[in-house]
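seq:
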Amino acid sequence: MTGSVAHNAGPVAETKICIKEAPGTVALTRLDLPGPGPGQALVRTTLTTICGSDIHIVDEIPAVAPGTPMGHEAVGIIEAVGEGVTRFRPGDRVVSSCLLSCGECPRCHAGEPNVCSTFGAPMNLLFGAQSEAFLVHSADHSMTHIPAEVSDRQAVLVADVLSTGFGAIERARLRRGDAVAIFGQGPVGLCATLAAAYFGAEPIIAVEGLANRAALARRFGAHVIADPRTAVDEILNATQGCGVDVAVEALGKQETFENCCRVVRLGGTVSSVGVYGGLEALRLPTDGSFIHRTLVTTLCPAGSGRLDQLLALLADGKIDPSPMFTHTLSLNDVVAAYDLFRSRRDGVIKIAIA
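struct:
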C-alpha cells in the first residue's frame, strides 16, 4: 500500500480477508485487492465487526455466491484514492456506509441513497470490509470523515446498525410521548431503543429474554422489559389495553412480526427492520390485528449526509451505542467470531474485530 493518490493502481498483494466459503461457513483467506479505480477509495481497516445480515448472507441467501468477500461495517484510514475523488486524501480517518450510493440518480436526489438505482438496491451492499483493506465505490457519496471526538467503536456502528435502528423509529414517525414496543434487543433493536429514547418516546417497552441484553436496553432508555413469551399481554396491560403507538420488529421472525401487529393500537405503526432471510413469505396475522395500521419497512438509511448526522450526535455526546461491544477478537479469529456471534453465547452482542 503506497499511502499516496493512485489511479487504477496495481493490486495490493495478499490482502487478508474473510469470505463466504460455502453455505453456513466462512473462511479467512488472502486475495489480491485492486488499487482504487475512478471514484473509489482504498481504506486500510482499523476496526470491523459482524452484523446479523452477515449471518443471513452466509446461512440463508444463496444469491451471494461462495468466495464473496464478507463484511459491510468498518472504519479505517485511506491509503489511496482513485481519479475523481475530491473529498478525501490518504491519511483521512473514515467510515463507509454499508450501502453504496452514486449521489446522482433520481433516488439519491430524492434523499434516498439507500435505494440508489445506480448500484441497485438492495444489493448495493458494501462487501469485503472484514479484511486488512477494502475498496469503497463512489467514495465521495458513500463515505465520510470521522470527527476526532468519536472513537472507532462508536463510528463503526453508524455504518449500519445505528442508522437502521434510528431509521426504524424515524420511518414510523414516532412523536415525543408516543408509546413504543421494540421486539428483540440485538444490535439493531438496541439502537432502536436508543433512538426511541432520543426522540422522547414513553413508555419504551423492550422485548428481550436474555438478561444482559435486557440490562443494556434499560441502560439505553427502556422503561419496561417484557418477556418474549408473554410480551403481548404485558404490553397490552402496560398500555391499559390500548396498545402502543409504534411497534418495532427487529428480530426477523414471523412470530414477532405478528406480535407487533397485535400490540399496536388502531391507527398505529408497525416498523419492520428484521431480515426475514429464512422465510419464503411473511404473513399478515388473520385475527384482524393488521386492520387500520400502518406497516413500514426500512433499508438502512445511507450516504455521507446520514453518516455525518449520526456522527454529530456521537461527537456531541447525545448518544453512545458503543457499550454493545462485548468481545474483542483479531481478524485472524474471524471464523471463531462468526461462530460466537451466531450462537449468542457468552453474552455476546457485538464483536470488535481489530
